[in-house]
């Protein structure tokens, strides 16, 4: 799966606010669709160590909110933008708490969210 073009497509949406029915996964679907890539999570390589992002730029990283009960296997997803950051659609990392596409350092994401290897593997 060639994901090299994904960061540049995603970057075109920086600071965009989508309609209410779009969430982090909807943003990823949009970007992957524009890139001509599959959005099937089962086709994503499993990233077992978030420090290995260099090899996975443009791929999806799955996360689960820390210290919060969540009935699903993941609560957030983002695209690995570069070696040290992700691009995602979120309100939790926004200064004004409004939904928007943004780039966030991976270290900040991992303070709020726990990395999980795949939505099909319980953490």
Notes on the structure:
By secondary structure, the protein is an alpha+beta fold. It has a single domain (6-116), classed as endopeptidase domain like (from Nostoc punctiforme) (endopeptidase fold (from Nostoc punctiforme)). It is built from three helices and five strands; from the N terminus they run ααββββαβ. It has helices at residues 6-11, 24-35, 106-112, and strands spanning 60-65, 76-82, 85-90, 100-105, 113-116. Strand 2 and strand 3 (85-90) form a beta hairpin. The mean pLDDT is 84.
Characteristics:
alpha+beta, 3 helices, five-stranded antiparallel beta sheet, 123 residues, endopeptidase fold (from Nostoc punctiforme)
Tell me the strand order in the biggest sheet.
4-3-2-1-5
CATH topology name = endopeptidase fold (from Nostoc punctiforme)
**How much β-strand is present in the residues?**
15-25%
In terms of quaternary structure, what is this?
Answer: single chain
Report the principal-axis shape.
Answer: globular
Mean pLDDT: 84
Number of helices: 3
C-alpha termini separation: 25 Å
SS-derived structural category = alpha+beta
């Amino acid at each position: 799966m060639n994901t090299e073009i994904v960061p540049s497509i995603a970057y075109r949406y920086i600071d965009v606010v989508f309609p209410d029915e779009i969430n982090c996964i909807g943003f990823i679907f949009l970007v992957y669709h524009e890139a001509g890539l599959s959005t099937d999570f089962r086709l994503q390589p499993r990233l077992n160590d978030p420090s290995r992002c260099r090899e996975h730029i443009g791929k999806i990283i799955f996360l689960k909110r820390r210290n919060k009960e969540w009935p699903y296997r993941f609560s957030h997803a983002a695209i690995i933008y570069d070696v040290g950051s992700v691009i995602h659609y979120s309100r939790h990392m926004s200064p004004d708490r409004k939904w928007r596409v943004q780039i966030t350092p991976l270290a900040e994401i991992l303070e709020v969210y726990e990395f999980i290897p795949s939505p099909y593997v319980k953490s």
